[in-house]
TrEMBL record:
Domain of life of the native organism: Bacteria
Keyword flag Repeat: no
Keywords: Lyase
Residues annotated as domain Fe-S hydro-lyase tartrate dehydratase beta-type catalytic: 7-175
Entries under Pfam families matching the protein: Fumerase_C (PF05683)
Family per record: Belongs to the class-I fumarase family.
Keyword Lipid biosynthesis listed: no
Annotated source species: Ventrimonas faecis
SUPFAM superfamilies in the record: FumA C-terminal domain-like (SSF117457)
Name of protein: Fe-S-containing hydro-lyase
């Protein structure tokens, strides 16, 4: 099913999505990769506030290439999500509404998704140039010294993603394999 969702994502929208749904995100999302996640964990460990609010927000695991003249961002393809798995459960428990990346997630992340009514989306790897066309603006909001791994606020319109893990723990990577095996 195709859905248009306003982000930050509401609890109701997150819970209504099912693994396999095609979704178009419009609104504000944030980027963060390995180094930014490590810094956020260090801040939490030190009892310091995070540089961005987690409540219902969406984190896109992406580090952009430099923007061409007249564009807000360069190629903006997803990063392998499992690299953030050691940090993600804590952020989900703090209210993170959704994550966008590519690839499988650990059982600890899946458990946190179910526990908190969150969702994991995949963006198409290798389509970074096309995905960047759905990004209207990009602004570094934290950890500027990390360069492409800085946290950015992105304004997106009809940003295409697929629900991989829904709030009930249904996992498209598993169900798609089962469906394919039945056809052969």
């Amino acid at each position: 099913m195709d859905r248009k969702i306003q982000v930050p994502i509401s609890k109701e929208d997150a819970k209504s999505l099912r693994a396999g749904d095609y979704v178009y995100l419009t609104g504000t999302i944030y980027t963060a990769r390995d180094a930014a996640h490590k810094r956020m964990q260090e801040a939490l460990d030190a009892g310091q506030p995070l540089p961005i609010e987690m409540d219902r927000n969406v984190i896109y695991y992406m580090g952009p290439s430099p923007a061409r003249e007249g564009r807000p961002i360069g190629s903006a393809g997803p990063t392998t999500a499992s690299r953030m798995d050691k940090y993600a459960p804590k952020l989900i428990d703090l209210g993170l509404g959704a994550m966008v990346g590519k690839g499988k997630r650990s059982q600890a992340v899946i458990d946190a998704v179910v526990r908190n009514g969150c969702v994991y989306f995949a963006a198409v790897g290798g389509a970074g140039a096309l995905l960047s066309k759905r990004i209207l603006s990009s602004e570094v909001v934290a950890y500027d010294d990390l360069g492409t791994e800085a946290i950015r606020r992105l304004e997106v319109e009809d940003f295409p993603v697929i629900v991989v893990i829904d709030s009930e723990g249904n996992n498209l990577y598993e169900t798609a394999i089962q469906q394919y095996a039945k056809k052969n």
